[in-house]
Amino acid sequence: MGYDVHITRRENWWGEEGQDISTAEWEAAVAADPGLVMAPMWWSAGRIVSKNPSDAVIARMCEVAKTLDARVQGDDGECYDA
After folding, report:
1. 38-71: burial string, b at 16+ Cβ within 10 Å, e else
2. Positive or negative, the Cα torsion across 47, 38, 51, 81?
3. Which domain of life is it from (predicted)?
């Protein structure tokens, strides 16, 4: 068991409403940033997810979220801002 943190455009990462982040957008973000790799973040169901991320990974997720016009949200619904 672990704790996931999500990059999402939805009001809540688990919700149905809101725009997905496409796999093409995620792949383009990774390709454009030499410091970014798919692992430890992966695309799933319209969002990017990291399991048990460190504070440094969460900060990086916040940077990536800005480029994707998205936000970072934890499993319990809390939002992160770096």
Report:
1. eeebebeebbbbbeebeeeebebbbebbeebebb
2. negative
3. Bacteria
